[in-house]
Amino acid sequence: MPDLMADPDDLLVRAYSTIAGWLAHGHETRTQPLAQLVRDARTPVVYDANFICDVRARTPDEIESLLEAADSMYRGLGHRLYLWDPGMPLEFEARLQLEGYEADEQVILVLEGALAAQGPKLDLRKAQSDADWETIYALCRLDHEEEAEKGFHDPWDESVTRQLVTSKRVKAPDVQFFLARVDGVDCAFFSAWPGENGVGQVEDLFTRSDFRGRGIGTALIARCVDDARARGAHAVLIGARPNDTPKHMYAALGFRPLCVERRYLKTGFE
Q1: What's the predicted TM-score (pTM) here?
Q2: Which one of 122, 142, 225, 261 has the lowest number of neighbouring Cβ atoms within 10 Å?
Q3: Are residues 141 and 83 part of one domain?
């Protein structure tokens, strides 16, 4: 079977590399012949900081070896998370299905030209100080409460939000977060990463509900796309839930659908 991820110049190959690279940035990564295992003891409940990617285990022996390595690496964590890419062997994906892993997906869109709109001129600044990161924490908390109300996940304890923000901050300044201030209120944030292969990523857009409909998200997207491109990116990725509305906003700005980010998750480990 051909290696579907063998062409390093292919946009899809670079896109999946950027997706995994954004998540892994700032965390411990152990590279093995059959996969990469990412771990961060500071944030054990954060799925995005503790996962396995670039899986190439195909034979029964290879699959058992990787599952055992994951159990060793993540002993004490309550979950196992595998990132799918087109190079993941069908045999391994089938094993995950057999073991009761559940798949979750995002649509990934890519911008290769100019944005269709820039948004209003706003007070946008880089998140740098402890106070800035406390503001991001407060906004993330609002985001998580809203997501729970929409049914995307169960309500999270504040300690989970705190760990999630920690997992974001360790990526800075390579992943640059920006805050938007409107009417004297820090009401939104977003981030930019140039990637390492010419494909960057913008991620984590959130605007307070009482400030929506004013072009703040568009202005942040424009600023973050510019930042990623100024630091080496050409194509820029953005992700969206298939069952949520932001995907239409991104498409209207010039992002086109490129691929699917699929994750296999299982909880209940001890």
Answers
A1: 0.93
A2: 142
A3: no
